[in-house]
Amino acid sequence: MAWGLAGLMSYFSPAMAEIRFGYGLSPRVAPPKDADRMIALLAGPDLAARRFPIAGSDAYRQHQLARQAAKRRYKRLRETDRKGDARAAIQAVQHRAIAEARMTIVQTLLRRSLSADAFRERLVAFWADHFTARVGSTFARAGLPAYTEEAIRPHVAGRFGDMLRAAVMHPMMLLALDQKVSMGPNSPAANRRGAGRGLNENLAREVMELHTLGVNGPYTQADVRQLAELFTGMTFDVRSGFEFRTAYAEPGAETVLGRSYGSATPDVADIARVLDDLAEHPATARHLAWKLAVHFVGDAPPPDLIDRLTARYRDTGGDLLAVSAALLSDPSAWTAAPGNVKPAEHFISSACRALGLDQSNLGALTHDQVRRLVLRPLRRMGQEWNRPPGPDGWPEDDKAWITPQSLSARLQWAIDFPAHLLPVLPDPGAFVGQALGARATPAVGFAARAAESRADAIGLILASPGFQRC
Amino acid sequence: MTNQPTRRQVLAQAALIGCSLAASPLLTPLSLAATPGQNRLVVIILRGGMDGLDVVRPVGAPGFAALRPGLSDGGHDLDGFFAAHPALGDLMPLWRSGELGFVHAVSTPYRDKRSHFDGQDLLEAGTLDLGDRRGGWLNRVVQQVPGAHANMAFAVGQGGLRILDGPARVSDWSPDVALRLGPQARLLADMVMRDDPMFDAAWREAGRITDGFEARAAEAAPQHLQVARFTAAQLRADTRIAAFSLSGWDTHRNQKHTLRPALTRLSDVLLALRADLGDVWAQTTVVAMTEFGRTVVENGTGGTDHGTGGAMILAGGALRGGRVVGRWPGLAEADLYARRDLMPTADVRAPAAWVLRAIAGIGRSALETQVFPGLDMGEDPGLL
């Protein structure tokens, strides 16, 4: 496939491709030789997901059903002497689901450590954050890996409109933004329960504000309200997943951004239509272009870059492969100076890749080790796994990531973790160049030689500012 | 969206064009009657929904014992009507000297869904509803203080504290991020971080925070005491506002036994703060608040379920304590919220606002519109 990227050869550097658009340099995976190769990999099959699979929602639904059954049993037995046993059964179901979910971080780290198509992994993380589903309980969060796997991942090289639909109609999103409980004020269900109750605007507002048009987009409160009414009826059932419940749906047409949707008979196709229109809206093109540029290039990206990405998005009707190619072909995305600070999860992922970790060490971690060596440190670094601060996801601002506490937690982890995972640590002198490439500075080189232990040396290299930036 | 830009839009625009956040009109610090000076504020978030009716028991209310047959024995008399939970014995000297007080029948504006996560989010946001994402209310307090520096406010402990989220710079530290670095590694880290000014600044700050504290962290005291001691050390230096959280309040079962450890930890934390703050305790106010109270009636498993109205705990040398403040709603079924929960008779943000007014001199209108949007502070309870 030709993307007309030949002229880009003067900007492209294989090492920068890995550092800025992947998870950093690896001793085991050769960097891409040019941008065409990166796009060809992204357009091709998702090999990393095949090699390190993560289960979809069916498996999580089984846990939900088992939990419901255990709760029913508890209700039956709670006045008897078997109530303790019934309660333990609920907990056992929950623990199984939670432990399974936690172990998916190992699969995620293996993909990021070993994939030749690391740009895809970065895009998955980016879009999963864009469509953040923030749910409360630990059991609910156990459904998030499946959400990313089936609503986000298959679409990172496809049409944005498809990803929008998959995310907005996914049970995790319907749960996170209260769509599940929203009913039209004049719907049959609301009429039964008393007029005027039941509409929840949360999902409608966030779809326009966060997912598509952006907070400065051309919509009003009336549009939010109309979209919320149009969204009524979307819900899910634990047995079957997404469901359109006409009894909850507001009858009649709604007007969103000046266009009319729906008729007397509620139909889920009208929701699909409004989402498609929102996906193709020029304000959405600009909002997404800006977010991509901020994420991959820097907190204050060049305005021309945003213009060019916007144009490509609009010209292609939101083809994310084309937009990603435009990003890679833009000289302003390839400045050699260190870019964004890696968020904590990105930081540990790139450390795994720099160390060449694989199934024999990462893959052998037990549930307890994952909690101790990965999840707890992530929390100390300010990024509790799958627990973003709001529906707008994790911050992009570099300063949010480098606080006294989080920087100390990164350094301590960088010293401790490699020594836990590898029987023999790499030679620090060689590791400087291997991990940092052209980013190696005299200070890091000196520290690598002067540290009193190999573990300290590796930790100092990984915690160096050059490694912590993209 | 209306034509009037929301603060979020302003922030988004500010981020987009990279201008200073301080330039946005809604963030302009208001002039203060007084700078925070030497007053200290500690906010403790009690996660899980503390049962105010068990901590501050209305033993004089008709029917209390019948509503809670397993949760009404014992306790320390406070004022003839209320009694403190039996586990609070160590705090009774503070009650008698006016360094401990309570506010009863308060809640956030959160109603009906009774979810911990939403309830805590709203408690820390300090707003009227969850859609209003303005960061945390303590961050907005820092924004009201001209010339505030990064050490002025501290989030202590693991994980983010949403109460301090926002554009004003605050520090964070968890005492369990014990930097086990030898002297050589520390010197080398100093050198490596100097490659990048942002990293260098954070690293120097980490050094300042840990200096003199490390020896204590190594004592392996329980986490909550490490947090209290660390907080006290910061408040004795430059810090004026600190926040941390204590969990373990979600007592659905066997509450007679399960509430005790949480209360003992809270009691130990208050006593450790008092001991370590020394003479600074006289200028300190501690506010402990929770996301909601619990059901009035004891449930079938000796516990209580998520409710609405609850209690707030106040402590400190600056406090005019020894009182249970608040309008008591009664426990008759008709007096309850939704016929199950203690009826909140005041917004939990109101006493917090009066504390802020007293210690930081923030004006009433700033408190009711900026720090706690939509709050009516009501009458001054004279807490300090």
Task: Produce a short descriptive summary.
Chain A is mainly α. Chain A contains 25 helices and four strands.
Report on the structure:
The complex is a heterodimer of chains A (470) and B (384). By secondary structure, chain A is mostly helical. Chain A folds into three domains: 6-10 and 30-156, no CATH class; 174-279, no CATH class; 344-468, no CATH class. Helix content of chain A is 57%, strand content 3%. Chain A is built from 25 helices and four strands. In chain A, the strands form two sheets. A two-stranded antiparallel sheet of chain A has the order 1-2. A two-stranded antiparallel sheet of chain A has the order 3-4. In chain A, helix 16 packs antiparallel against helix 17 (320-328). Chain A is globular, with a radius of gyration of 24 Å. Chain B is built from 13 helices and twelve strands. In chain B, strands 1, 5, 6, 7, 8, 9, 10, 11 and 12 form a nine-stranded mixed β-sheet that branches. Chain B is globular. The longest helix of chain B has 23 residues, at 255-277. Classes of the chains: A mainly alpha (470), B alpha/beta (384). At the A-B interface, helix 21, helix 23, helix 24 and helix 25 of A face helix 1, helix 5, strand 7, helix 7 and helix 8 of B.
User: What gap, in angstroms, lies between the N and C termini of chain B?
Assistant: 42 Å
* Alpha-beta classification of chain B: alpha/beta
Strand content of chain B: 5-15%
The proportion of strand residues of chain A reads: under 5%
- Given the helix and strand composition of chain A, which structural class is it? mainly alpha
Coarse morphology of chain A: globular
> How many β-strand runs of chain B?
12
Give average pLDDT of chain A, whole number: 94
Oligomerization state of this entry?
heterodimer
Strand order of the largest sheet of chain A: 1-2
How many DSSP helices of chain B?
13
Shape descriptor of chain B reads globular
Helix content of chain A: 55-70%
Largest sheet of chain B: 9 strands, mixed
**Number of E-state strands of chain A:** 4
Low-confidence segments of chain A:
none
Helix content estimate of chain B: 25-40%
Q: Please tell me how large the radius of gyration of chain A is.
A: 24 Å
Helix and strand string of chain B, N-terminal first? HEHEHEEHEHHEEHHHHEHEEEEHH
Largest sheet of chain A: 2 strands, antiparallel
Mean pLDDT of chain B: 85
